[in-house]
Amino acid sequence: MKYDLEERTAKFAENVIGLLRTIKITPLNSRIVDQLVGSSGSIGANYNEANEGESKKDFYHKLSISKKEIKETLHWLRLLSTAEPDIADKLKILWSEAHELLLIFSKILSNSKV
């Protein structure tokens, strides 16, 4: 079975959006929510661009950006957990998936040195 990382990253962003739709936006969480939507969606967008890279160097660069976006997403998930403790358990599930993606992307990058 071929593992579809494009689908997995898209599903992750959709799951983030789905959870964020359930909370009330407040002055405290507004910026966190905006940043989280952006960074979680950027993971897959940059991965898709990497797959269409014009060279191995381009692939590596775009994949590196995806990895940075995963790390940013982990940061915002942590902060949202503090701002919205009622959904902390659901955020931990998303955090776990983001962490798994980080491990996968790190492995791909370590095997793809330019």
Topology, pairings included?
Elements: H1 5-20, H2 30-51, H3 56-83, H4 88-110
What does this structure look like?
With 114 residues, this protein is mainly alpha-helical. The chain has helices at residues 5-20, 30-51, 56-83, 88-110. The chain is elongated and about 45 Å long. 27% of the residues are buried.
User: Spans with pLDDT under 50 lasting ≥5 residues?
Assistant: none
N- to C-terminal distance: 28 Å
Radius of gyration equals 15 Å
Task: Please state the average pLDDT score.
Answer: 95
**Total DSSP helices:** 4
Counting DSSP E segments of at least 2 residues, the number of strands comes to 0
Query: In percent terms, what proportion of residues is strand?
Result: under 5%
Which descriptors would you attach to this protein?
114 residues, mainly alpha
Short description:
Helices cover 78% and strands 0% of the residues. With 114 residues, it is an all-alpha fold.
